[in-house]
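name: query_chain
kind: protein
chains: 1
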Amino acid sequence: MLHVVIRGAPKGNKPAILTYHDVGLNHKLCFNTFFNNEDMQEITKHFVVCHVDAPGQQIGASQLPQGYQYPTMDQLAGMLPTVVQHFGFKSIVGIGVGAGAYILAKFALIFPDLVEGLVLLNIDPNGKGWIDWAATKLSGLTSALPDTVLPHLFSQEELMNNTELVQSYRQQINNTVNQFNLQLFWNMYNSRRDLEMNRSGTVINAKTLKCPVMLVVGDNAPAEEGVVECNSKLDPTNTTFLKMADSGGLPQLTQPGKLTEAFKYFLQGMGYMPSASMTRLARSRTASLTSASSMDGSRSRACTHSDSTEGVGTVTHTMEVSC
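structure:
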């Protein structure tokens, strides 16, 4: 059972923007700051937005029953065609972070005709080896679950400085995400297999993503190595690799304006919104040049947005979709 939130209504033959959050988060904690950014409104008025929460991860979710077999990453990807069909979307442009990026990439590999483009933040295409798995297991025995998950989400610098964003997310992960359900999702993400994709010509019968892809990672983010490797497995003619400075582990929270600008160019490259003005987005460039002290201020503001409403003036409906 997936929890799905729809914002707006389908716009003609345009794809839906479908989001999938990272482990430890849900669509609100992962994407509200990004989608509530002023410049993003110029994009969302052209597209219906579909936020997907993994089973049991939404705010206020009931605890999953004892003995519940949490879906694998492959199974979670296999649930998405049901969502697409249920709402009558012809195709999607996916935005995924971490575990959500892995799930959307897997979805696009299995169902390429349903995916027009992907924005993948912090994707790690590699499965967990036994040593990694054991280290994660040991960490889970000695640390509270939020403190086990936080190093997956934030850079070492952010964790060492215990930024306001880290403090806020530690509290929100602890208080708004069901810890039993989160443990199941965390365990399954850490049991994932390699994404079976390789650049054409590198191996026999190579299979890779066919749609345009924008890979995004913050400098010094925990996922940086994985994203670089993912880039090496994709077709360079339709892949953009964006490494964002001063953005920590979650660029959509710390640099929403700059990421919005990149997303808009990505959509325009796909032939959408060709006449849309770029003037408002130019302000984000100015904002990126501000001092470190004002960046700290913007990060604290990002915290306050994470519990805000789904968006001003948009029609929102929430439902459970059986898959």
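note: Confidence is low (pLDDT under 50) at residues 281-313.
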